[in-house]
Design a protein that fits this description.
Shape: globular
Number of strands: 10
Bound molecules: D-glutamic acid
Strand order of the largest sheet: 4-3-1-2-9-10
Structural class: alpha/beta
Strand content: 15-25%
Number of helices: 11
Radius of gyration: 18 Å
Helix content: 40-55%
Distance between the termini: 29 Å
Oligomer: single chain
CATH topology of the largest domain: Rossmann fold
CATH class of the largest domain: Alpha Beta
Largest sheet: 6 strands, parallel
Number of domains: 2
CATH architecture of the largest domain: 3-Layer(aba) Sandwich
Order of helices and strands: EHEHEHEHEHHEHHEHEHEHE
Length: 273
């Protein structure tokens, strides 16, 4: 089985890890959260690129044979450099699902909720430029949401109030589709539905990202994919590493992950910043 690193600024990448545990249960995972430095979304391009590269190098030094950059912001600002620096392993990124959104929208109005850094990035704007001009994208930065989620407030009044503000332009424009362009935001889906209603189509790309990881593992390390069975006797290990508080990360993982952890060998440790 392969050792796979999954990295995010904090707990957001758990939404991607959940898919990985579901689709590739036999593999071993390290989940690395840079919680001491979250949020990334309001930091400079250079800072995000340098920091992401440093953490990916650390994951390779731990023996990771593939890395999922489970953060839209780090993907937008750093993935090209990470791939150049670490060409020996597959590096899978996460991008806002504006392409599937453009295909699925019925009325041609799509909301995109993402960090300011993602929305400003060249990578995001280059992707946007490839899409048909008849689709209208209402872009909104989710300022302040990540710190609330990091502090465990996924359904607090403060989070609801802030989310209501951010979603107002998207709601008023009549969007029928909303792209969750930050891996933290899928945890807010119940609140989003409370505000905009059940009719809106929420797009997150966790499933597609892990399918891409599975393809890359088969292509690049085919001898490490022996079993795809999700039988309970064949589950890989899961190590949580954080620059923040490891007990807190473990507690939040148990709260946010839908995959059961009790049948796996799970450990948590702290990484000095
Ligand atoms: N979860 C991240 C993303 O997908 C980063 C959010 C942040 O740290 O600002 O963009």
């Amino acid at each position: 089985m392969a050792l796979i690193g999954v990295f995010d600024s904090g707990v957001g990448g758990l939404s991607i890890l959940d898919e990985a545990l579901r689709q590739l249960p036999q593999h071993n995972f390290i989940y690395l959260a840079d919680s001491a430095n979250a949020p990334y979304g309001e930091k400079s391009t250079d800072w995000i690129a340098l920091r992401s590269l440093k953490l990916c190098r650390y994951l390779v030094a731990q023996g990771c044979e593939a890395i999922v950059v489970a953060c839209n912001t780090a993907t937008a600002e750093a993935i090209a450099q990470i791939r150049l620096t670490l060409p020996q392993i597959p590096i899978i990124g996460v991008e806002p699902g504006i392409k599937p959104a453009a295909m699925q929208t019925q009325n041609g109005i799509v909301g995109v909720l993402a960090t300011q850094a993602t929305l400003n990035s060249d990578k995001f704007n280059a992707l946007l430029a490839t899409l048909p001009g008849d689709c209208q994208f209402i872009k909104q930065a989710g300022a302040g949401l990540v710190p609330l989620i990091e502090s465990g407030q996924i359904d607090s009044v403060a989070t609801l109030t802030l989310l209501e503000q951010h979603l107002t332009p998207i709601r008023l424009a009549g969007a029928d589709t909303l792209v969750l362009g930050c891996t933290h935001y899928p945890f807010l889906s119940p609140l989003i539905r409370k505000i905009i209603g059940n009719e809106i189509n929420l797009i997150d790309t966790g499933d597609a990202v892990i399918k891409q990881l599975a393809r890359q593992l088969l292509l690049q390390i085919p001898n490490r994919n022996e079993s795809n069975q999700s039988d309970d006797t064949n589950l890989g290990t899961l190590t949580f590493i954080t620059t923040g508080d490891s007990n807190k990360l473990l507690k939040m993982s148990k709260q946010l992950l839908q995959s059961p952890l009790q049948l796996r060998q799970v450990s948590a440790q702290q990484l000095p910043q």
